[in-house]
């Protein structure tokens, strides 16, 4: 069984993902016997969509500081961050708030 998600990247994040802002993906509904969550999605994205510069997307076990994550237009901090269990039809947005100078 799979979960369908809409993933969007902004603020320059799209440059790490084939310069494409929007992706419709399907991920496994379970990972290691547990329901898929945002943490497992982040690593799925790293393994399946990320094309370059992993260090600009992931730091440790989560996204690096300076990346705003929205779940259905709500800050992921209000949804439990990486523990949020993704649901079929969710829209997840990653926006870089850091800009070089």
The CATH topology name reads Ubiquitin-like (UB roll)
User: Strand share of the residues?
Assistant: 35-45%
Radius of gyration: 13 Å
Helix percentage: 10-25%
Oligomeric category: single chain
Segments where pLDDT lies below 50 for 5+ residues?
A: none
**SS field, number of helical segments:** 1
Q: What class do helices, strands and sheet pairing give?
A: mainly beta
Based on the structure given, which CATH architecture is correct?
Roll
Tell me the number of strands: 9
Tell me the number of structural domains: 1
- Mean pLDDT across all amino acids: 92
Largest sheet: 5 strands, mixed
Topology order in helix (H) and strand (E) letters: EEEEHEEEEE
CATH superfamily: Beta-grasp domain
- Ends: how far apart? 45 Å
Q: What strand order characterises the main sheet? A: 2-1-9-7-8
Shape: globular
CATH class: Alpha Beta
């Amino acid at each position: 069984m799979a979960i369908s998600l809409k993933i969007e990247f902004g603020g320059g994040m799209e440059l790490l993902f084939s310069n494409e802002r929007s992706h419709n993906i399907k991920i496994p509904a379970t990972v290691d016997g547990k329901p898929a969550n945002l943490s497992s999605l982040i690593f799925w994205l790293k393994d399946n969509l990320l094309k370059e510069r992993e260090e600009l997307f992931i730091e440790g076990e989560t996204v690096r500081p300076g990346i705003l994550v929205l779940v259905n237009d709500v800050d992921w901090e209000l949804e439990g961050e990486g523990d949020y269990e993704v649901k079929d039809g969710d829209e997840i947005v990653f926006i870089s708030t850091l800009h070089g100078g």
